[in-house]
Amino acid sequence: MQKVNLMHKFSLFSEHWSPKVVGELNDQYVKLAKVKGEFVWHHHADEDELFLVIKGQLRMLFREPEGGRRQVVMEEGEFLIVPRGIEHKPIADEETHIMLLEPRSTLNTGTKRTRLTIDALEGI
Amino acid sequence: MQKVNLMHKFSLFSEHWSPKVVGELNDQYVKLAKVKGEFVWHHHADEDELFLVIKGQLRMLFREPEGGRRQVVMEEGEFLIVPRGIEHKPIADEETHIMLLEPRSTLNTGTKRTRLTIDALEGI
Q1: DSSP reduced 3-state for B48
Q2: Given an 8 Å threshold on Cβ–Cβ distance, is A26 in contact with B82?
Q3: Which of A88-97, B80-89, B111-120 has the lowest mean pLDDT?
Q4: Residue A45 C-alpha, separation from nearest chain B C-alpha, in angstroms
Q5: B77: Cα separation from own chain's centroid
Q6: pLDDT tens-digit series, residues B98-119
Q7: d(CA B41, CA B18)
Q8: Residue of A28, A43, A19, A111 lying closest to B25 (CA atoms)
Q9: Closest approach of B16 to chain A, Cα-based (Å)
């Protein structure tokens, strides 16, 4: 049983959109990611996802059920839970550090495979 | 779908050892608590628990399987996962703000009932 220092973990990697596993509980992973630029539109069929901004700013775009789009802008110390089934697209205009919480089964690009899909999750 | 600002949520309550639900995902609750002083020794039979320090310092005491005791001191930006079954006792020498993640089924005092047990969870 060891504590995890978020700043230290973030110092161990630099690539974007490549979440690292830093903890596991109740079949969920705690992951850290550095993000910059636009990710792809995707959704997760059976998994809710939490995004907590540790540093920077994360914009989350959604497709609303009736077809419209909405954006939530998250600053440091703010989190958002994206429920299963909701199409979303994270964007960071500058490099941003986030903590994620989601089931172990979660694929980063949800129900579709793209060049950003990561199959082999890395722990740090 | 609304973002949650941790600082704002912490400004809405002042009592100690009384976690407030601020989010729910995958049958887990995200809770915020202000803590000060010593909590009781307890364990959770089936639930792993994550403690993230948002402000202050949290000391977590454990009873090791072979009977010894150990302490982990967590500062701001550090988290610890206490696996199910492990006897633990959180202590904060000064008021400390923490974020918790644990299954909805989790009782704050684990397998025992004390005057600190909270049955009706409050959302804020």
Answers
A1: coil
A2: no
A3: B111-120
A4: 12
A5: 15
A6: 999 999 888 888 888 888 888 7
A7: 16
A8: A28
A9: 21
